[in-house]
Structure formats: C-alpha cells, structure tokens
Write a structure and sequence with these properties.
Layout: E1 19-20, E2 41-52, H1 54-64, E3 72-79, E4 82-89, H2 92-95, H3 98-102, E5 107-115, E6 130-134, E7 137-144, H4 150-159, H5 169-181, H6 187-197, E8 203-208, E9 212-216, E10 225-228, E11 234-237, E12 249-253, E13 259-262, E14 268-271, E15 282-283, H7 285-290, E16 296-297, E17 300-301, H8 302-316, E18 323-326, H9 330-342, E19 350-352, H10 365-375, E20 376-378, H11 380-383, E21 387-392, H12 399-410, E22 415-420, H13 448-455, E23 459-462, H14 468-472, E24 477-478, H15 480-483
Parallel strand pairs: 15-24, 18-21, 21-22, 22-23
Antiparallel strand pairs: 1-23, 2-5, 2-11, 3-4, 3-5, 6-7, 7-8, 8-9, 9-13, 10-11, 10-12, 13-14, 16-17, 19-20
Helix pairs in contact: 4-5, 5-6, 8-9, 10-12
C-alpha cells in the first residue's frame, strides 16, 4: 500500500490577537467541540488507447486521493460500452480487495471517487460513481464539491416527475445531464447545458460509452488537473499528487469553467465557453489543509503555501520558545515555516498512528473523540521541560486541540503557545467543506482568550485573514468561511443532511 492518509483540524474566529493565558480548564468548561474539518471528495478518471487493467490504475489513483475522503469509494470501468461498477463504504484498500479488483474487465476508460459526504448521509447509495442508463446509452459521473442551488434544482426536477434514490448533489447533476442528453446530439452538449444551470462548486468527470469529459466550475472552487500517460492516454485527477501513482506526467490544471473532452480517437478538445464567466475563487483551505503537500494547485505548491503560512504566523505572533512542533500532517509544513522564520529550532513532537484516517472524517462526534485518543502520541524527549510553539491548521470546535495540548502537558511541556495557520472559522461553507452552520464553530461563541483557556494553551494566535492571498500567490481565492463574503448566492439550507430530515412530531 503506497500511500498514507492525513489528519488535521479546522478553525475558529476572526479575532486578531495572541493572548497569554495560563491553562486552567475547569471540568465545567469541558465543552466537547471537535477540532476537525471535513473535506469533500476526490475524483479520478483515465482513458487509454488500448484496453488495460484500468481498475487497478484507478485504485492506485484513489489511494493517492484517499486524504480527500474516507467514508466511501467507487470505480466504474468502461469495456467497449459495457460499464462495471463497484462502490461501498470504507477505505479504498478495504473496498477494493484483490478479488474485487480481479473481477473488473479491462477497459479503455474508467472513473473513480473517494467520498466524504458534504451533502447526504453516510450510506452506500450515496457513494459514487453515479451510473445512469437511458435510451441513448450509458453515463457514469463523479463529482467533487457542493451545489449552492441544489435544493432549487432538486425541487424543480421533482415537480417534473424525477424520483431520487440518493440524497447527494451528484444525482441532481446526473438527472440534468441525462435530460439534456435526450434532447441533444452529444454528451458534451448535454454537459454544457447542465453547467449553465449549476451554481457552486463542481469539479466532475463524466464518462459515456465513448468519451471522457472533465469539467471545472467557473469559479474554480475545487482543483482539477490533467496528465498524460506514456502510451498516449490521459488522466484527470483532483490533485496532481495522483498522477505519479499511475505513471502519468502533469500536463496542466483545468481552468475555471473549462471542459475537456477526450474522444475515442485520442483527441483532446478544450471547450472554454464558460471560462471567465465568473470570478475565480479557489478555496484557500485547499492550500491550508485539504490538499496533499506534494500537490501543485493552479501553479502553486501546497508545501510552499503552508510554509509561507507558518512564516507569516511567526511574523504576526512571535513566541519565546525552545522548539516548534507541528500537528501531523498539514501542521508540519507550517511548523517548518514558523521555525525557519523565527529561528526557533524545529522538532518532531507528535507522532501519528499511520493506520487511522483523518479524525475530522469520522462522521459523528463520539467517533471523532475516540479517534483523537488513538491517533497522536507525544515524543517526550522533544517536549519535556520545553516551551513549545504548537502549529496546527485550524480549530473548528476545539476538542482535538484541547486533547493535543493535554497530551503535551502530560509529556512534560512547560509552556504551550498554539499557533493556527488559518484565520478563525466564523461562517458556513456551501462549496464542499462540511461546515454547515455557525452553531458548532467555537469562534462564533468565544473570544480568542476564551478559546485559549478552553484548550489549555498559554497563548493562541490565528493567521491574519489579510495575508491569505500570499499563501496562494493570488487574490483570486474564496475565504467565505472566514469573512462571510460568498462568491455565489447563499442557499436557505446548507445542512449536509438537508435531504434526510426526520418528520417533526405532532
């Protein structure tokens, strides 16, 4: 198994301050906020000139994208117009056993998906790819992101007789494409019609009996890139880190609004009619947390972006300390940047259990809390008797941060100055991150001094929001979860389970 996953956290609130408070967390203050952020999904697609074992290659691609979703995964292989699909809840290595992979035929195209459910519950029926059979043929679809107009589109479809079997946004997209396909001459025309109706975040790959199509929404909220194979084939992936896993070379990122069509003859056709129809706003948290550090998104190294965040933190919130340590994994790059900028030695103070996935991806609070206890262990030699700068990517609810601080105290840390490489979370996200209400955001209810006291830190500092463009080397970023400045209309209901509500009593 070639790839390990990642673990991390979320955020807090836009109060700019580094507060010194001695840790004194009373029992009555032990509020079980969870410190973990939930990412959306990872998509992968491949097309080759001759039939190959594409199920295994797609599986390798999903392994490299496993950090983007660990609830479920799936693969669909196209063998001369015949689709074979397997999908289930669980990690790729558990869902795709050697027996399952061996049951797939060779094919010339395939798509795959790793899921964290930002819309819809954790049920097998919500796993992707989404496969559709209609009178003009077959289609399979994988999608990363959230539609901000999903409820409006679903209601309109239902009023016209559509019957939904899942509660995910992806089925809405599949319905719209299918209805358009019945009225058009090609699958790419149908996808264009669908794109014109969709709002919000959607990086998706559509597979028909003969073609493979990748589309990135006009805002470019979520990344999507293309690579080339030595035999002349092509690969689409959410992140560039998935390309070497299948022997592909990075070609370029899809532009926001671009659609690329791969034909049976091996042609690559770029449709740019939706390019620059909306301001580009890639999610800044892709650089802070979601993406793997070896990925390059829109020309910017994720590793370098996180190091810049650490250096900017050192400038904004210096600390008198003996060692800088990071919370694995995304806190490590920022910790290195903080150490280099501050001159404080960098050390490895926490070890992650490599056999436990990201805490934030555990869907329930009790599962998240249990996972934190098993996931991290302190290295006493690094922290005992030391004044520590502890770097993490975010604080959402607070539970994980508090437990990590407690672990370090138990290992003998003298002082703990916590620094967060993002601003505090103050607003919901409607574009594919599982922050669907302000109710559970600790920074919406507590000041920075209060948060510092609740998590047991001697001081706390968040990355100033005004420096975020420096991370992505661009002003074209989405910071709505920090600022409340949304690039699209805000839906009335953004709840993850908005299509799975119980009836009210009465």
């Amino acid at each position: 198994m070639l790839f390990s996953d990642k673990l991390h956290e979320e955020c807090g609130r836009t109060v700019s301050a580094s507060i010194s408070i001695h840790d004194s967390l009373g029992e009555k203050q032990e509020v079980l906020f969870s410190d973990k952020l939930h990412e959306e999904c990872g998509v992968f697609g491949i097309m080759t000139p001759q039939p190959e074992d594409l199920a295994h290659l797609t599986y390798c691609g999903l392994f490299a994208l496993q950090h983007r979703g660990q609830e479920g995964c799936g693969i669909t292989v196209n063998d001369d117009g015949m689709f074979t699909t397997h999908k289930d809840l669980g990690l790729a290595e558990h869902v795709f056993t050697p027996q399952v992979l061996g049951s797939f035929p060779h094919g010339t195209a395939a798509i795959g998906h790793t899921r964290y459910g930002t819309t819809g519950g954790s049920q097998r029926r919500n796993c992707q790819p989404m496969e559709v059979n209609h009178q003009k043929g077959k289609m399979a679809l994988v999608h990363n992101g959230n539609l901000s107009n999903a409820a409006v589109l679903r209601s309109a479809l239902e009023q016209r007789g559509a019957i939904f079997h899942t509660t995910s946004d992806t089925e809405i997209i599949a319905y719209i494409i299918t209805q358009a396909r019945l009225q058009t001459d090609s699958i790419e025309d149908a996808v264009r019609i669908a794109v014109s109706q969709l709002e919000g975040a959607f990086s998706m790959i559509v597979m028909s009996a003969q073609k493979l199509i990748a589309v990135r929404d006009p805002h470019g909220f979520r990344p999507l890139c293309i690579g080339t194979l030595p035999d002349g084939g092509y690969v689409f992936a959410s992140e560039s880190c998935a390309l070497p896993a299948v022997g592909a070379a990075f070609l370029r990122d899809l532009e926001p609004g671009e659609m690329i069509v791969l034909t049976p003859e091996g042609k690559l056709i770029s449709d740019r009619r939706f390019v620059r129809t909306a301001p580009k706003t890639i999610c800044i948290f892709e650089y802070i947390y979601f993406a793997r550090p070896d990925s390059v998104l829109d020309g910017v190294s994720v590793h370098a972006a996180r190091k810049r965040a650490g250096a900017l933190l050192a400038e904004a919130y210096p600390a008198d300390a003996d060692v800088v340590i990071g919370v694995p994994d995304s806190g490590l790059d920022a910790a290195l940047g903080y150490a280099q900028a501050s001159g404080i030695p960098y050390g490895i103070g926490l070890i992650k259990n490599k056999y436990i996935g990201r805490t934030f991806i555990a869907p329930t609070q009790s599962e998240r809390v249990s996972a934190v206890r098993l996931k991290l262990s302190p290295i006493r030699e690094t922290v005992e008797g030391k004044r520590i700068v502890l770097i993490d990517d975010s604080i959402v609810r607070g539970t994980t941060s508090r437990r990590i601080v407690s672990l370090l105290r138990d290992a003998g840390a003298k002082k703990i100055h916590m620094r967060i490489s993002s601003p505090p979370f103050l607003h919901p996200c409607y574009y594919g991150t599982d922050i669907d209400s302000e109710e559970n955001l600790i920074a919406c209810h507590h000041s920075v001094p209060e948060i510092a006291e609740m998590i047991g830190a001697d001081s706390l500092g968040f990355l100033p929001a005004e420096v975020l463009p420096q991370l992505a080397c661009s002003e074209e970023i989405c910071t709505a979860c920090f600022s409340g400045d949304y690039p699209t209309a805000v839906p009335q209901s953004g709840s993850k389970n908005r299509f799975e509500q119980k009836l009210h009593a009465g």
